[in-house]
Specification:
By secondary structure, this protein is mainly alpha-helical. Helix content is 38%, strand content 4%. The protein has five helices and two strands. The protein has a two-stranded antiparallel ribbon with strand order 1-2. The longest helix has 11 residues. It is elongated and about 80 Å long. 8% of the residues are buried. The model has no long low-confidence stretch (mean pLDDT 86).
C-alpha cells in the first residue's frame, strides 16, 4: 500500500502540513506536530479508522485516494513441508536414548 496524503492534499491546494493540521483540528482531530509530520512525510504503520474518516472528510476524498494499492509481486508461496524421514526397507531406524534432563554443571 502507498500512502498518498500529500498528493491528496495538493490536489485540494493544501501545500503545508501545518495548514492541514489546522483544518483537522477545526474538524475535531487534534494531531501533534510530530504525528502530523509523520503522516505528511512518510507512510504510517497504522491509522485509526476514525482519524481516516476525519481526514477524508476534511480533504473531500475517499480512503482509496489516500491508500493506493501498489503493483508489487507477491512473495513466492512456501514449499509444502516434506514428510518425515522413514527407515528404508531392511534398515532399522536409529534409536537415540534421551535420559531426561542433564545434571547441572558442577
Amino acid at each position: 500500500m502507498k500512502w498518498n496524503l500529500r498528493l491528496a492534499a495538493a490536489q485540494r491546494d493544501i501545500w503545508k502540513a501545518s495548514q492541514l493540521q489546522a483544518m483537522l483540528a477545526d474538524a475535531g482531530l487534534v494531531i501533534s506536530a510530530g504525528k502530523m509530520s509523520h503522516l505528511w512525510s512518510s507512510q504510517p504503520v497504522t491509522i485509526r479508522l476514525e482519524d481516516l474518516q476525519i481526514i477524508c472528510t476534511v480533504l473531500g476524498c475517499t480512503p482509496n485516494d489516500l491508500l493506493v494499492l501498489e503493483d508489487t509481486p507477491l512473495p513466492a508461496p512456501r514449499p509444502a513441508e516434506t514428510a518425515p524421514l522413514r527407515a528404508v526397507a531392511g534398515e532399522a531406524p536409529i534409536q537415540r536414548r534421551h535420559a531426561g534432563r542433564s545434571k547441572p554443571p558442577v
